[in-house]
Known about the structure:
The protein has 24 helices and 15 strands. By secondary structure, it is of the alpha/beta class.
Amino acid sequence: xxxxxxxxxxxxxxxxxxxxxxxxxxxxxxxxxxxxxxxxxxxxxxxxxxxxxxxxxxxxxxxxxxxxxxxxxxxxxxxxxxxxxxxxxxxxxxxxxxxxxxxxxxxxxxxxxxxxxxxxxxxxxxxxxxxxxxxxxxxxxxxxxxxxxxxxxxxxxxxxxxxxxxxxxxxxxxxxxxxxxxxxxxxxxxxxxxxxxxxxxxxxxxxxxxxxxxxxxxxxxxxxxxxxxxxxxxxxxxxxxxxxxxxxxxxxxxxxxxxxxxxxxxxxxxxxxxxxxxxxxxxxxxxxxxxxxxxxxxxxxxxxxxxxxxxxxxxxxxxxxxxxxxxxxxxxxxxxxxxxxxxxxxxxxxxxxxxxxxxxxxxxxxxxxxxxxxxxxxxxxxxxxxxxxxxxxxxxxxxxxxxxxxxxxxxxxxxxxxxxxxxxxxxxxxxxxxxxxxxxxxxxxxxxxxxxxxxxxxxxxxxxxxxxxxxxxxxxxxxxxxxxxxxxxxxxxxxx
Length: 496
């Protein structure tokens, strides 16, 4: 359109179509599908599952609900619906419910159109202003959502309380000709959910029993945690029946998708120093979340949010940044052992079952890190002989390494360990790599061997031979064997 109409007469001459919100969203989605343009940019891992169901719901002009555990991008998807709205729409200026100049529904706007006719100046509403989001809480009232009668306005205007002009509009009428999103729907009181019936089915609202009816044009979308149906509240059956589509979200199913999400969301651009994050560090961070979601000590009904790896990676990088600043290094390269500095983030992202409570949140998190390192290490070094390094420790070698050790110091202390350099190259530290990169790769190898219990590590002695791998003391001739000791009364015979 070359020129935006500024009056009602010019708008009529432009012959702009007057469509419902759901028709508008559908038409724009059809255009994107025909152009094969990307849908919902920034949403990763849903291309074969959630996105097709979402597209079908929009093409069907349904109100819909996204069901899923925390941290599954439900709110982000709803906010992405804004991109399917027109860039701007004409409105009657000053109207609280953004009335359509071509087809006004409120009494005040109808009176203005009748009085001013084609001379009526019109305004334009941008798409970002047409999205209203509300977090459902138990204290929300029907007046907040729908509206109320304002007796002061009625008295000042000399109007009857049943007059539409005495109405104080709530959130829903103010979302007219837009998208209204309610997050955590089960938290909304049952009587408020009842108040949504007419809006979903008929598209109108009534205020306090007075015959005030507004034929609203609103696209209603919701989110909910399926476990909240019994934990904090529930979606009442009549309302659930009126929601057109129920779409289930999920956590990333592959480590690659999870890494892509964390890379997109985590703050890793540190202005002070150059940052380089090895691929195995990213993999271990994501694997912690995968391990947590499968661990029986962690409550699966609560879920483990994708925010866990996002905040964990940020803390891992911050610990590496702190070490680099303290040692005067210009390149920040996180190490696998930096994950232990992220325990404050990890322990706050899951709820424990009874077994987990007995073990303690920090110890559970440490076990998750160790299991994650072991999985990634096994995948990286599948079929690679690690015995030379293990044998060096079995022969009495030890490495008292500090987590805050400078890269050059760590490399110098490990230079005499046979086979360690070759394994570091396999991890991704090519010959001639910068010292922080090589130090990180060495740290990964050592921590990986420790996670597989091939070597041991403690706070005082650092890395040493594994007690499980150490050779057993030779048995004396007069000493009973383990099999003999299993015979009833054997211990008493030999030791008393």
